[in-house]
Amino acid sequence: MGIFATKALPEFIEVDLGRGPLQIRLKRNSRAKRYILRIPPGDPTPVLTIPARGNLKTAQEFANRQIGWLKERLGSRPDTIRFEEEARIPVRGVLHTLRSSGKLRGVAQLDHEEETEEPLLLLPGETQSFHRKTKDFLRKLAKEDLEGHVKHFAKQLGRTHHSITLRDTKSRWGSCSHDGKLSFSWRLVMAPPDILEYVAAHEVAHLVKLDHSPEFWRICEQLAPHTKYAQRWLKEHGSQLHLYGQE
């Protein structure tokens, strides 16, 4: 035949670690020569790479043999990364170290270490308030970035939106109601800027087409030509953003 056809794989398989099922994301790689299981830094979901001629049955058997390794690796790392002094968190896709500004009052601000050029997020006040002040700063930054993109895209389409609300949902990055109310996850500000830009474009496109028809995707890609790249990024890395700043 000359062409080897492979069956489509599900997005996830599960293994039982004894305390409940664990999802493992499947990723086929035509250049891979063997099955490879890894845990991406900062991501709670393991990824199993499957070679071109690999199949679901062998992938499941391979994952089951790695249960001991998974227990050891997952048990030795924190489930979340708190907003506290010296923690490193992404801001617009760049890791910043949280550090005290040395001032009792003032506003949080992005800066850098003079000698090393290490990006910093400087926070005023007592370190006990870092969690709240970091979240407040990120929400404010997200609102500014999203409002700018929404205004720009809405003007391109000749549409108006009713309002912008920030939430902390895990099920979706943004939404648009029938009356033009837009809602976004504030965690998008931790992603690279072009990812936040895509989500803004996606929701503004819904002001024209409140569905996911071919016409909707045409409008979305008109506003954000990098739509497919951004979708892949969110699928592969979006869950990492939920590791930061959990109570």
Automatic annotation (TrEMBL):
The record ties this protein, via CDD domains, to: M48_yhfN_like (cd07344)
Domain YgjP-like metallopeptidase, which positions? 33-237
Keyword terms: Hydrolase
InterPro entries per the UniProt record, alphabetical:
UTP_pyrophosphatase-like, YgjP-like_metallopeptidase
The record lists the organism as Pseudovibrio japonicus
Q: What is this protein called?
A: Metal-dependent hydrolase
Q: Which domain of life is it from?
A: Bacteria
GO MF entry, a single one: hydrolase activity
State a single Pfam family of this protein. Answer: YgjP-like
In terms of PANTHER family, this protein maps to:
UNCHARACTERIZED PROTEIN YGJP (PTHR30399), UTP PYROPHOSPHATASE (PTHR30399:SF1)
